[in-house]
Amino acid sequence: MLQTDAEAAARGMFAHRYAAFERMAPVFTTAGIESRHTVKPLDWYLSALDWPERNAAYLAGAQELFVDAATRALAAAGCAASDVDTIVTISSTGIATPSLEARVHGRMGFRADVERVPVFGLGCAGGVSGLALAGRLAAARPGSTVLLVAIEICTAAFRMDQLTAANMVATALFGDGAAACVVRAGETGLARIEGAGEHLWPDTLDIMGWTVDPTGLGVVFDRSIPPFAEQQVGPAVNGILARIGVDRAAVDRFACHPGGAKVITALETTLCLDQGTLDHERDVLRQYGNMSAPTVLFVLERLVKDGLPRRTVLTALGPGFTCSCLSLASTA
């Protein structure tokens, strides 16, 4: 879906009902997005949808994205689905019981004794926190193979009924996507996880998250996120790095979840980076929008293609309000 098409559709949906639409409309051009992937055609989002219809779209779209992302990750790692001992599935944009990895079990060819770890509620921080979890599970059983899959169908939460600034921003920003990777302990791979950690700020539950009603999920997205990030994330990241024994001065590249254009700028400021440093983040945002949890793994993929620097630190912000951080040391 092109961003210009999304803006035109939003205008048709909201301009005649939402008095602040013209004031909010520039977010479609200032978001730094040119295109986004959606699991449904644009017209589907313009109809009256209830929670069962939205969740059905989540289930169908997430399964297809799971198979695609997992298949590519396994091929890149040179292993088969039958080699996987543990699957960590990260997703917060729908409800799946049985969980997604169980639903694609037969299509993928996973073993009957594969261990399943579905994780819900991490939101945009899920890519980094999920990778940290996969690393800990792999380390607990040296020689085992852990498959991490992060999937979000953010567009299932596009809402025609919510005439709010947060909903306008979400409509301009979010897309669907999935990313996957294989994690093993005791083997040489692209990089080694040096450590990971999180920082949760108290009394910040209303900054980011979901509300739930009969129509579906409704976004909680506070306008204070960019200034909050600019003020708070740098010290939080420094604290996490100190706890895991990584020298801040030895970090060669930060790989950040590109939550939005303003957030990327705020992250460059708080991490004491030159403006424009987070170029891959801006490219991913431009091509795919904010896909929540998988987005930072898209950034990491681009860094891998360029050749990982000696030390890369992944960061992401998510509901809680939380900063998740993980340090990777290149093995090349």
Say which CATH homologous superfamily of the largest domain is assigned: Thiolase/Chalcone synthase
The low-pLDDT segments are none
Report Rg.
19 Å
Mass-distribution shape: globular
Distance between the termini: 38 Å
Structural features, described:
With 332 residues, the protein is of the alpha/beta class. It folds into two domains: 3-184, Thiolase/Chalcone synthase (Peroxisomal Thiolase, Chain A, domain 1, 3-Layer(aba) Sandwich); 191-330, Peroxisomal Thiolase, Chain A, domain 1 (3-Layer(aba) Sandwich), CATH 3.40.47. The protein has 13 helices and ten strands. A four-stranded mixed β-sheet has the order 2-1-3-4, sandwiched between helices. The protein has a four-stranded mixed β-sheet with strand order 5-10-9-8, with helices on both faces. A hairpin with a 2-residue loop joins strand 6 and strand 7 (216-221). Helix 10 crosses helix 11 (261-270) and helix 12 crosses helix 13. The two termini are 38 Å apart. The mean pLDDT is 94.
Please outline what is shown here.
With 332 residues, the chain is α/β, with parallel strands linked by helices. The chain contains 13 helices and 10 strands. The chain folds into 2 domains: 3-184, Peroxisomal Thiolase, Chain A, domain 1; 191-330, 3-Layer(aba) Sandwich (Peroxisomal Thiolase, Chain A, domain 1), CATH 3.40.47.
Please describe the topology of this protein.
Elements: H1 3-14, H2 21-24, H3 27-30, H4 42-45, H5 51-77, E1 86-90, H6 100-103, H7 105-108, E2 115-119, H8 126-140, E3 145-153, H9 165-173, E4 176-184, E5 191-200, E6 208-213, E7 216-221, H10 225-243, E8 253-256, H11 261-270, H12 279-288, H13 295-306, E9 311-318, E10 322-330
Parallel strand pairs: 1-2, 1-3, 8-9
Antiparallel strand pairs: 3-4, 5-10, 6-7, 9-10
Helix pairs in contact: 10-11, 12-13
